[in-house]
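Retry 2 of 3 after timeout on previous attempt. Resubmitting structure tokens to design endpoint.
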């Protein structure tokens, strides 16, 4: 083992996504099978949460992962984020049956202001931040705004679960393998307004738009199925998605750190004005990744239907941002 360990902070580490995530990070699935990691785990100070975290750490130890170079339990973000190279901000209050993400905005704004400030104070200057906790785009925006000394581009939100959900639906529709689907993207907010766009997508090199050739299916079946998948899982399980969310977080960080080999992936990233999205809005875009950096795919044609969808999800995000302005 020759590589120097990197520090990976995970918040909400004793929650259900944490339980599906930590073991995969420690086994090398996120940063590579040759990259040792030190886990810096954050939970709320509450005794029950800290005890649960202790149990998770016992299990991590019992896995005897060769790449796990250390595990720390924390209740203070200033300690959990010390020198961290990667920060996965999962801890937040999950949505229960009948609740919308907007209801969670104010409660979560407090959490992400404090965590953004802590990252600003103590994290590695190159820390790569992924916000999973909902409302993910706006929480990432709040953390980014609370960390003025860190590069804004290093604050990202998770739309990869939406991307993966869309890919799976398209594979079923076209009778092809999910691994053959390329050039798919999901624009906008991680919410039912997201716009999953397969106009450029291919499967085995064939245009998915041509194969499907059904705009009614797109508007009335595909988009609502992908957009409301989180709610469908809550209705079925009584709990929000966890294993698939953890899997998407691994995909997002792995591709960011190790590269997407020219393939498009979807990341929620602060706009620089691309596609008319105002600068600073954390928006789902198609990106390619290489050398630890992502690059928004530019120059795609936006037709009238797509523009309308993008406007809707942008308006929702701007409404969320306006709702938290006074807290920043
Ligand atoms: P959970 O309730 O099982 O776990 C959340 C954990 O976070 C709890 O253990 C809680 O104690 C902890 N926590 C709360 N506030 C914290 C804070 N300030 N600092 C540190 N820890 C804190 O929830 P979960 O199912 O793991 O989901 C976590 C979040 O992820 C929720 O907001 C959920 O809506 C969101 N989510 C997002 C996506 C996505 O695609 N972006 C997908 C699924 C779930
Ligand atoms: C999901 O998409 O599964 C999560 O964001 C949970 C939710 O509230 O929909």
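Retry 2 succeeded. Sequence:
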């Amino acid at each position: 083992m020759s590589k120097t360990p990197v520090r990976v902070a995970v918040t909400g580490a004793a929650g259900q996504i944490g339980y599906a995530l930590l073991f995969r990070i420690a086994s090398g699935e996120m940063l590579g099978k040759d990259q040792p990691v030190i886990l810096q785990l954050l939970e709320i100070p509450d005794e029950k949460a800290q005890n649960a975290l202790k149990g998770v750490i016992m299990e991590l130890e019992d896995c005897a992962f060769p790449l796990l170079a250390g595990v720390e339990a924390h209740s203070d973000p200033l300690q959990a984020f010390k020198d961290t190279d990667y920060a996965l901000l999962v801890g937040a209050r999950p949505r229960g049956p009948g609740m919308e993400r907007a209801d969670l905005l104010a409660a979560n704004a407090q959490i992400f202001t404090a965590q953004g400030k802590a990252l600003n104070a103590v994290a590695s200057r190159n820390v790569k931040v992924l916000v999973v906790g909902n409302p993910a785009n706006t929480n990432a925006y709040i953390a980014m705004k609370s960390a003025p000394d860190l590069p804004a581009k290093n604050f990202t939100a998770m739309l990869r679960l939406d991307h993966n959900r869309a890919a799976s639906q398209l594979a079923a529709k076209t009778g092809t393998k999910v691994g053959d689907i390329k050039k798919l993207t999901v624009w906008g907010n991680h919410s039912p307004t997201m716009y999953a766009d397969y106009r450029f997508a291919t499967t085995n090199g064939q245009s998915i738009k041509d194969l499907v050739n059904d705009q009614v299916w797109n508007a009335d079946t595909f988009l609502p199925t992908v957009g409301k998948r989180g709610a469908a899982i809550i209705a079925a399980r009584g709990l929000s998605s966890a294993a698939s969310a953890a899997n998407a977080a691994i995909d997002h960080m792995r591709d960011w750190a190790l590269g997407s080999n020219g393939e498009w992936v979807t990341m929620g990233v602060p706009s620089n004005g691309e596609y008319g999205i105002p600068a600073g809005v954390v928006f789902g875009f198609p990106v390619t990744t290489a050398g630890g950096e992502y690059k928004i795919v530019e120059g795609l044609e936006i037709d009238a239907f797509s523009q309308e969808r993008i406007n809707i999800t942008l308006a929702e995000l701007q409404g969320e941002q306006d709702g938290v302005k006074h807290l920043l």
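Attempt log closed. Residues 36 and 67 are 4 Å apart (CA to CA).
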